[in-house]
Amino acid sequence: MKNFYKMSIKLLAVCFFFNFSVAEAQLTVMGLGNYNVGAVSDKGVVSMHTSGGGIYMWTANTGIVQIGSISNGYPATGKTVVSNDGNTIASSVTNTATGFNEISMYNVTSSTWVNKGGLVSTGWDGSVSSTWGMSPNANTIVGLGWLTASNAHAVKWDETNGMVDLGSMVSGRSSRANAISADGSVVVGWQDESTGTRSGAKWIDGVESFITDSNGNNVGEAGAVSADGNTIIGSANPNPYVWKAATGLTYITHPNASFSFKGGATGVSGDGTKVIGFYRAFGAPPMSGEGFIWTETDGRVNLNDYATSLGINTNGVIMGLPLAISQDGKKIAGIGMNASNQMVAFYLDLTGYLSVSDVEKGKNKETISIYPNPVTDILYCKGAGKIEKAEVYNMVGQIVKSFTSIEDQIDVSSLPKGNYIVQLSEKGGKQQSYKFIKK
Asked: pLDDT tens across 101-122, in order?
């Protein structure tokens, strides 16, 4: 314990020395088992449920806490979602007065549920309605409302209008709303075609239309929408897609994509710049695939590789199915497999990954960059001026390598695997520090 305390003090000192936050990026296993993660807030509140009917919330301080349940014996349906401030959760909960499950809202502060009903009073398969999405400010919930035993429509609920039927543009066919923009003007989900094919749909100011590619072909179900309503993500066959109001549809491709290896996009940040999703073999378990993060500039990157490149220890967890990303794009949650091949719910917090290098970039147009990261042998340095000195520190602040004269590269091949900080000094005395990982 004494040695651990001394090491913690040293680590704290080195963080202050290099002027970046102690709150480093990290991967946390929230729990073992099949938790259906629905959403994550900017404040790190994760909402989820299990097929057995348990409804849960998770925070770093409280761990997983059960907040509700499906009590009528039917399996859980829909998603359990959380507002951006973490104060409101929406899910499908049993109305004890009727015995049917319905769209419901939970107040985190008062620990109380309020049922919101459906389009009909008596439902089918134990349900009159189900929750699938909520606006970031919790003003509006969207989902599915049953009409008959074989027909359901997309719905949205708000305090002013109550439960509203968004309709179906194909007579006699079902639709569903999966997500809604911040101001409520854009709703996305799916629409059954006359052939029975389920295709991506969007409702803009209440008017429904299919989501199409550049050839005018309908694409698959839409799963999420950015806060401003301009970016929609979803699943096509076999590739996930990103649809933007200004530029249309872009596929997120994979070199192995085929009928037997398919992908889907599952979440988008509030500004529409970051998309998460997965690829996996057709018919394989959900958590067995490859999770990814996608941006327009960098394309699709394996989520585990992305985390490792930031110096995050993933602790043997394969993030096979990322399911939710926060509005600020800095928290990701989903399910995967740990080193013992157990199913886990994971939470990836990227908030602290921005090191002093990113702060310096904001202050100066010209800066130093290092690559590759992670690195095996040679770490290359590129800067505006001549780099006169480089010092490599371990994570307890000890100098492990020092270079008094370098060109544009540092040999780190002799370093043990792990996380390090390199401090680079340019001519004129300017210093910048960067974190890197040695493979």
From this structure: 999 999 999 999 999 999 999 8
Instruction: Show the CA angle centred on residue 378, arms to residues 377 and 379, nearest 5°.
Output: 125
User: Whose CA is closest to 321, among 263, 238, 260, 243?
Assistant: 263
Domain ranges for the chain: 24-353, 356-438
How many angstroms separate the CA atoms of 218 and 212, rounded?
Answer: 4
Strands 331-337 and 186-192, sheet pairing: unpaired
Exposure b/e, 264-278, CB count within 10 A at least 16 = b: bbbbbbbebebbbbb
Question: CB–CB of 374/436 below 8 Å?
Answer: yes
Can you give the pLDDT at residue 359? Answer: 39
Rg (CA), the chain: 24
SS3 state of residue 14: helix
Nearest to 141 by CA among 119, 128, 157: 157
Distance (Å, rounded) from C-alpha 106 to C-alpha 65? 13
Instruction: State how far the Cα of 73 lies from the Cα of 53, in Å rounded to an integer.
Output: 8
What is the side-by-side order of every strand in the sheet holding 409-411?
Answer: 369-371, 378-382, 409-411
Q: Name the DSSP class of 416.
A: P
We find that the CATH architecture of domain 356-438 is Sandwich (2.60)
Helix, strand and coil content of the chain, in percent to the nearest 5, comes to 10, 50, 45
pLDDT single digits (tens) 200-217: 999 999 999 999 999 999
SS3 of residue 359 by DSSP: helix
Residues in a beta bridge with 264: 278
For 24-353, CATH number? Answer: 2.130.10.10
Cα–Cα separations (whole angstroms), residue 287 to 268, 343, 415: 19, 7, 34
Q: How far is CA 40 from its chain centroid?
A: 7
Please give the Cα distance from 147 to 163 (Å, whole number): 13
Alpha carbons 251 and 336: distance in angstroms, whole number: 24
